[in-house]
Design a protein that fits this description.
Helices cover about 15% and strands about 30% of the residues. A hairpin with a 4-residue loop joins strand 16 (about 275-280) and strand 17 (about 285-290). It folds into 2 domains: about 10-185, Glutaredoxin; about 205-350, Thiol:disulfide interchange protein DsbD, N-terminal domain (Immunoglobulin-like). About 40% of the residues are buried. The protein is built from 7 helices and 21 strands.
């Protein structure tokens, strides 16, 4: 996936051209991957998270309960709004989706070990209006079991968490969590909402054939190296028409989404829903199919490796080309196989490398 971790200085060279910001150099980050399974860290689904009360960027005291929306809270742990370019870029993305989060009934908050002054400076420069919480001394980070212990305590960076996102209900119980294996790869809050089943108000493209009606959209219109987002196909078969599910037996051709490989793009396996059982009476066989509306989710990321960052360096947009292939059948006959070309154009932005200048 996104396999190579970059130092902060290397990221600035590979991704962000000189930004004329005269910033001091960032502290050096760990050069090796974590030796722990990040997915096993911290509260798991079904567990209640520890309570806390912390100051936000406006020096206001915020309890866990006060951060909740009608349905709960999206709680992000990140490394720093000062020296971590992936974190700062992610926080701006979350601000851009803040209205969508609230529309779906959630509060939004992000927690780091940064001092209030750093958070206030970053929020002012980047227009962040949701709460950024200051966990000085990393007490809450430790209580959540997310302290990054792969670097020595003598390192200037010590105290930051493994980054990730929790979705909590109003009782503070984890209903979903999203933690990646590498610190560069960050799930957008829009892709998080999609994967927990919420509705996104985003534009899409529509393609219709005699057998299928397809609406395609991306959870995010803009991404930076490390941004992990989702491409989505909502598919409605015509009346009495079915297509075959992946893994179908008996020599049938299953529906498939193929993303065209290109430098700068990292692609995961597409996610398909559970298939329906279709009984084909003439052959007395059961076949795995889709004959009701269904959704395909294709997770992708802009590659933050050295090679990926180099491929993205001069781009302002990236067109992701794909092919949806299938063979549809009805109760009597099968139609000719089809291959539908699809594409999404995503804006490419640079990582945020400006350092904090707290007053």
């Amino acid at each position: 996936m996104i396999a190579k971790l970059l130092g902060i200085a290397a990221v600035a060279v590979a991704v962000a051209e000189a930004t004329a910001q005269q910033a001091p150099p960032a502290p050096s980050a760990p050069a090796t991957p974590p030796t722990v399974e990040v997915s096993r860290l911290g509260p798991q689904i079904g567990q209640r998270v520890p309570d806390f009360t912390l100051l936000d960027q406006n020096n206001q005291s915020r309890s866990l309960q006060s951060l909740m929306g009608p349905r709960g809270l999206v709680l992000l742990f990140y490394r720093s709004a000062d020296w971590c370019p992936y974190c700062k870029t992610q926080l701006v993305e979350e601000q851009n989706a803040y209205a969508e989060v609230r529309k779906n009934g959630y509060g939004l908050a992000a927690l780091s070990y940064d001092p209030v002054a750093v958070l206030a400076d970053f929020s002012k420069r980047r227009g962040i209006t949701f709460p950024l919480l200051s966990d000085g001394g990393s007490a809450v980070i430790k209580r959540y079991g997310l302290l990054n212990t792969t670097i020595p305590t003598t390192n200037d960076l010590f105290g930051y968490p493994f980054p990730g996102t929790f979705v909590l209900n109003r009782d503070g119980v984890v209903t979903a969590r999203f933690f990646e294996d590498t610190y560069q790869e960050r799930d957008t809050v829009s892709s998080v909402l999609l994967r927990i089943g919420d509705r996104l108000d985003v534009p899409g493209m529509h393609v219709a054939t005699p057998e299928l009606d397809v609406t395609a959209f991306s959870t995010d219109a803009v991404a930076a190296p490390g941004t992990h987002f989702s491409l989505v196909l909502d598919i409605v078969p015509a009346a009495r028409v079915h297509v075959y599910a992946p893994g179908v037996a008996g020599g049938y051709r299953p529906i498939a989404l193929t993303i065209q490989p290109q430098a700068g793009l990292a692609v995961r396996a597409a996610t398909f829903p559970k298939a329906e059982d279709y009984f084909f009476q003439p052959l007395n066989e059961h076949v795995a199919v889709y004959q009701k509306p269904f959704r395909i989710v294709q997770d992708v990321a802009l590659d933050a490796s050295r090679e990926g960052a180099a491929a993205l360096r001069d781009l302002t947009s990236l067109t992701i080309a794909a092919t949806l292939s299938y063979q549809a059948c009805d109760d009597r006959l099968c139609f000719n196989p089809r291959s539908l070309p699809l594409s999404w154009t995503i804006g490419v932005k640079r990582l945020d490398t400006e350092r904090a200048r707290p007053q």
